[in-house]
TrEMBL record:
<dbReference type="InterPro" id="IPR005135">
    <property type="entry name" value="Endo/exonuclease/phosphatase"/>
</dbReference>
<keyword id="KW-0472">Membrane</keyword>
<feature type="transmembrane region" description="Helical">
    <location>
        <begin position="48"/>
        <end position="71"/>
    </location>
</feature>
<feature type="transmembrane region" description="Helical">
    <location>
        <begin position="24"/>
        <end position="42"/>
    </location>
</feature>
<keyword id="KW-1133">Transmembrane helix</keyword>
<keyword id="KW-0540">Nuclease</keyword>
<feature type="transmembrane region" description="Helical">
    <location>
        <begin position="78"/>
        <end position="98"/>
    </location>
</feature>
<dbReference type="GO" id="GO:0004519">
    <property type="term" value="F:endonuclease activity"/>
</dbReference>
<dbReference type="Pfam" id="PF03372">
    <property type="entry name" value="Exo_endo_phos"/>
</dbReference>
<dbReference type="GO" id="GO:0004527">
    <property type="term" value="F:exonuclease activity"/>
</dbReference>
<protein>
    <submittedName>
        <fullName>Endonuclease/exonuclease/phosphatase family protein</fullName>
    </submittedName>
</protein>
<keyword id="KW-0255">Endonuclease</keyword>
<keyword id="KW-0812">Transmembrane</keyword>
<keyword id="KW-0378">Hydrolase</keyword>
<feature type="domain" description="Endonuclease/exonuclease/phosphatase">
    <location>
        <begin position="115"/>
        <end position="320"/>
    </location>
</feature>
<dbReference type="InterPro" id="IPR036691">
    <property type="entry name" value="Endo/exonu/phosph_ase_sf"/>
</dbReference>
Amino acid sequence: MTKVDVGGEIVVPPRRMLRVSPPLAWLTVTPFTLWAVARLAGLDAAGAGVALMTGTPYVAAASTVAVLAALAGRRRAVIVTAIATTAALAAVVLPRAIGTAPTATSATGPVLRILTANLFYGVGDAEAVVGLVRRLKPDVLSTQELTPAAVEALDDAGLGRLLPYRHLEDAPGASGSGVYSRHPLTRLPDFAPEGSHNMPRARIALPSGPPVEIVDVHTLSPVVRDVALWAADLAALPSASPGVVRVLAGDFNASLDHAALRAVLARGYVDAAGATGNGLAATWPANRRFPPLITIDHVLYDRRAVAVDTGVHAVPGSDHRAFFAEIRLPGRL
């Protein structure tokens, strides 16, 4: 800054504030506003909108730039619109990083530990998965993209000694899935729509507490030609039920910014990661030169339970991080 001496008095020229033309300010703010409207209204059920909506946390952060542009435009309408847009996006994203206070006063039962891992066409490192089982001591392991070769590799690594009970629907490629359990389980009828990935479910007999049903979730990927099938997979997931504590665990191929997943939550579930303030921990794509970008692996639990802790864990060879959750069950139903 240059100081000017005028008649013995030093005069500092006033700072020039950055100014943006009103049209440019509106041009900057409008895309964020449209995104917020689409997110709040659930307008993501078709075409590229499904994939794009997973970027909402990043759009929410970037929307602060629009607020600065609006302030520089010095027009009340654009400033109000920009602030409202950022506030709306923050309202749907920030709770995942903050967590929620437990509200289920009935959650006085045992803790159920759940680990879910997508094995990427069966090539995820079996030794690493079994190492996680040894360290985290889950009661249940939910696997997706479980191939016959992966079943053999997991057994060779010692999984059967740690989780001796199983309900497997392994298959070549991406369609196979399987539930491994520390406790006895009973197989239950399939529910997945025809043409979907296998999604086995089983009832676990815990030493104490109410009956627990585990659903191994793996929806189809919502690429353009399969968006309707992906939505049908999510819609087919069983709702929470009064007579059992139901847990949905796996690769949903959906984030909390998808209306279809929020509709599942509305049927009696809570997202474990979001409840514990870990909802922005990305799980896909893993093992790349860049970190994972989006959160599509979840554990959803009955509202009568409470999430105690969650975490994500690397699985070499897989394009997903494994997700772990501890859930305190209700003492009785």
